[in-house]
Amino acid sequence: METAKLYEGKAKVVLADREDGFVRMVFKDDATADNGLKRGRIADKGRMNRDISAALFRYLEAHGIPTHYVEAAGEREMRVRRLRMLPLEFVVRNTAAGSLARRLGLPEGQELGRVVVEIYLKNDALGDPLINRDHIRALGLADDGDVDRAIELARRTNDLLRPLLLSCGLRLIDFKLEFGVDAKGEVRLGDEISPDTCRFWDAATGTRLDKDRFRRDMGGVEEAYAEVLRRVDAAVGGAA
Ligand code: TMP
Question: Could you tell me which residues are beta bridge partners of residue 7?
Answer without folding.
Answer: 14
